[in-house]
Design brief:
This protein is α/β, with parallel strands linked by helices and 185 residues long. It has 5 helices and 7 strands. Strands 5-4-3-6-7 form a 5-stranded mixed beta sheet. Strands 1-2 form a two-stranded antiparallel ribbon.
Length: 185
C-alpha cells in the first residue's frame, strides 16, 4: 500500500517545490541581478559604428570621460518601452550616451531609430555578440554607467524608467562628478 502512495507523494513534493520557486521568482525583481563587474574595469571594446563601414569606435575613444552604454536591438520589445526615456533624458544626463546595437541587422536598426528617434552620441554595432559576453549582457535592454577611469559603477538590466533615472541614475552620475576621497575606484 505504501509503495503505491510513493509516486503521489513525489508528485506532491514536486508541485510544492515548483510553487515555492514561482512564488520566490515573483517576489524578486529580475532587474536587480547583481553584476560581478560593478567596481571593476569595463571591458575594452572596439566595434564598427552603425552605418559607417570604415569607422570604428571604442572604449579608448572615451578615456577620461564617464559614459552610459545602452544595449538595444530593433527586435527587442522592452527597448521600445525604454526608448522614450532615453530620448527624454539623453542631454539632461550630461554625459555621452553610447548605443550598443546588439545582434541586429544594420538596416533594421536604422529603420527602428528613424521611427523612434536617435538619442545616442554614437552607435556601435555588435552583430555577433562577442563583446556583449565580456560585459555580461543577459539581454536587451541593459545600461551600464562607466566612470572616467573606465570602471563600471552601475548596471541596469531591463528598461530604464523615469523613476529609475531620477532615483538611481542621476545620483550615481552626480557622485561621479564629486572628487574621490582616497583615490580608490
Amino acid at each position: 500500500m505504501n509503495a503505491r502512495l510513493l509516486p503521489l507523494a513525489a508528485f506532491l513534493l514536486l508541485v510544492a517545490l515548483l510553487g515555492f520557486g514561482l512564488r520566490w521568482n515573483m517576489k524578486h525583481d529580475q532587474r536587480e541581478v547583481p553584476s560581478p563587474l560593478i567596481g571593476k574595469a569595463a571591458p575594452e571594446f572596439r566595434l564598427p559604428v552603425l552605418n559607417e563601414a570604415n569607422r570604428e569606435f571604442g572604449s579608448a575613444d572615451l578615456k577620461g570621460k564617464p559614459y552610459l552604454l545602452n544595449v538595444f536591438g530593433s527586435w527587442c520589445p522592452s527597448c521600445v518601452d525604454e526608448h522614450p526615456v532615453l530620448v527624454r533624458y539623453a542631454k539632461e544626463l550630461g554625459l555621452p550616451l553610447v548605443g550598443y546595437n546588439w545582434k541586429d541587422d544594420a538596416a533594421d536598426a536604422t529603420a527602428w531609430l528613424a521611427r523612434f528617434g536617435n538619442p545616442y552620441d554614437v552607435i556601435v554595432a555588435d552583430t555577433v555578440g562577442r563583446t556583449a559576453i565580456d560585459f555580461g549582457v543577459y539581454g536587451a535592454p541593459e545600461t551600464f554607467l562607466v566612470d572616467g577611469d573606465g570602471y563600471i559603477r552601475l548596471k541596469r538590466i531591463g528598461a530604464l524608467t523615469p523613476d529609475y533615472v531620477e532615483k538611481e541614475l542621476k545620483p550615481a552620475i552626480a557622485a561621479l562628478r564629486k572628487p574621490a576621497a582616497g583615490g580608490q575606484p
